[in-house]
Amino acid sequence: MLRNVSLLRSARAPPSPQRWRSYAASSKRGGDATEEELDAARKWLAQLDPDTIPRSICDISFSRSSGPGGQNVNKYAAMPRAPRLEVVASKATVRIPTSSILPLLPPLLRPHILASRYHAAKSSELVIQADDSRKQTENVNSAFRRLHELITDAGRQAVPGETSPEQTKRVADLQKAEAARRRKMKEFQSKKKAARRGGGRDD
């Protein structure tokens, strides 16, 4: 009788793209983001692609799949000599330490990443699994697409869209009108106080 043991394998990791390593160097921590930082985050997100995510910071392993084709996988596992062991271990699990990936992301995105369902707080890592296919490579790519979606969703929540010139002018006009209203109110209060003081002297 064969033991039900998951087969784990390490995956080769391509070198990290330069822009992933260099972003954190120009980022600030804490405080409200400036327009320059927001613009830098927008450009960074626009260049993000599942294939450019550095796999060198990830731990990729494989185990038995329970998704599509799972029954066939179990049949292979029950055979005395499994002809294709890689089919048995088709489910991909990608683990990324938060200490490795967070410094590479725009600071505005980091709280949203930590609040996601993929964040394992006890182990301080992101854990993403995929078993859509019987092939290891396709499941690994699927897991990284989910990581890409996680980052882009965080970007949509944290980084507002670029303001158009018309919107900028409208905001400036509103701010100017509000400042004028406050000046008038202040002048009115000053005149009111002066009138009260003058009335007291007449008595």
Notable characteristics:
203 residues, alpha+beta, Double Stranded RNA Binding Domain, 4-stranded antiparallel β-sheet, 4 strands, disordered N terminus
3D architecture notes:
With about 200 residues, the protein is of the alpha+beta class. Among the domains are: about 100 residues, Double Stranded RNA Binding Domain (2-Layer Sandwich), CATH 3.30.160; about 25 residues. The chain is about 50% helix and about 10% strand. The chain has eight helices and four strands, in the order ααβααβααββαα. Strands 1-2-4-3 form a four-stranded antiparallel β-sheet. A hairpin with a 4-residue loop joins strand 3 and strand 4. It is elongated and about 95 Å long. It starts with 17 loop residues before the first helix and ends with a helix. The N terminus is likely disordered. This is Prokaryotic-type class I peptide chain release factors domain-containing protein. InterPro entries: Mito_Release_Factor_mL62, Pep_chain_release_fac_I. One of its GO terms (molecular function) is translation release factor activity, codon nonspecific.
Order of helices and strands: HHEHHEHHEEHH
Q: Please, how many helices? A: 8
Annotated CATH topology of the domain at 35-65 and 86-158: Double Stranded RNA Binding Domain
Radius of gyration: 28 Å
Instruction: State the helicity in percent bands.
Output: 40-55%
How is the largest sheet built, in terms of strand order?
1-2-4-3
Strand content bin: 5-15%
Q: Please outline the major beta sheet.
A: 4 strands, antiparallel
- Could you report the average pLDDT, rounded to the nearest whole number? 75
- The shape is elongated
Domain Prokaryotic-type class I peptide chain release factors: 52-193
Organism: Hortaea werneckii
InterPro entries: Mito_Release_Factor_mL62, Pep_chain_release_fac_I
GO molecular function, one term: translation release factor activity, codon nonspecific
